[in-house]
Design goal:
Number of strands: 9
Distance between the termini: 6 Å
Shape: globular
Order of helices and strands: EEEHHEEHEEHEEHHH
Largest sheet: 7 strands, antiparallel
Radius of gyration: 20 Å
Helix content: 25-40%
Strand content: 25-35%
Oligomer: single chain
């Protein structure tokens, strides 16, 4: 699997800057669309035939509602994944990155406690992770898929359950957790999506990969270290 882009946290916030590799097959959703772009879409909708205009308007409202919900929940990136499956069709997933405040002054203590609980077997859906960027934990579960109350007829064709995997890592020097989450309705591909999620988690770094690459310019290509090496190993 190859990296499609190296992504960073939002730069116009006070949140710590971090980077991670996003695999090929994922397309990022714009969580901060400019007002000019939205007005352009609205004007385009006005020029559509009435039937198409109604459907497009519902899609636009859904998009703006999702963006608003994601921003409210401190989501910094949302990416949609589409990959071919063994039957000749496609399987889908949604990947998000968010920050979660914790009580106290150290998110590392929170992660250590959760990882310790996972290691003791007190939560079968969790396990500790040793990542290049530090200690974290993985939790996963299968849960009922959300249903639409506005369009109940659409729920009949929707999947009954989803797989959800979550990796949490402490942000350095802050009481915040960085949360990477993968969701897919394709329960048969849960193992593959867990591997993708863990691959992204292993590329998570708090050091600018471009700086790491610049520091390694005088070294042999195969001697890369740090974030650049992690991204090559997992998605190269």
């Amino acid at each position: 699997m190859t990296v499609s882009e190296v992504t960073t946290s939002t730069k116009d916030t006070r949140k710590p800057t971090f980077w991670y590799g996003l695999p090929v097959g994922y397309v990022s959703l714009d969580l901060h669309p400019p007002a000019e772009r939205l007005m352009e879409i609205v004007n385009q909708l006005r020029g559509l035939p009435e039937g198409e205009r109604d459907e497009a308007d519902r899609a636009l409202r859904l998009y703006t509602g999702i963006v608003s919900l994601l921003n409210t929940n401190r989501v910094q990136q949302c990416a949609l994944g589409v990959h071919p499956d063994d039957s000749g069709g496609f399987t889908t997933s949604v990947f998000t990155v968010s920050t979660l405040p914790t009580s106290g002054n150290s998110a590392k203590l929170v992660v250590a406690g959760l990882a310790g609980s996972a290691a003791d077997g007190r939560d079968d859906g969790m396990r500790p992770l040793e990542l290049p960027c530090g200690l974290g934990f993985l939790s996963e579960r299968r849960s009922p898929a959300p249903r639409s109350s506005r369009r109940p007829e659409a729920s009949d064709a929707a999947p009954s359950h989803i797989w959800q995997g979550t990796v949490a890592v402490a942000a350095p020097g802050t009481p915040e957790l960085i949360v990477l989450q993968m969701v897919t309705p394709d329960l048969d591909s849960a193992d593959a999506y867990r591997d993708i999620l863990l691959g992204i988690a292993r590329t998570l770094t708090f050091t600018d990969p471009s700086r790491a690459a610049a520091d390694d310019e005088d070294q042999e290509p195969e001697a890369l270290t740090g974030a650049a090496a992690a991204m090559r190993n997992d998605f190269g």
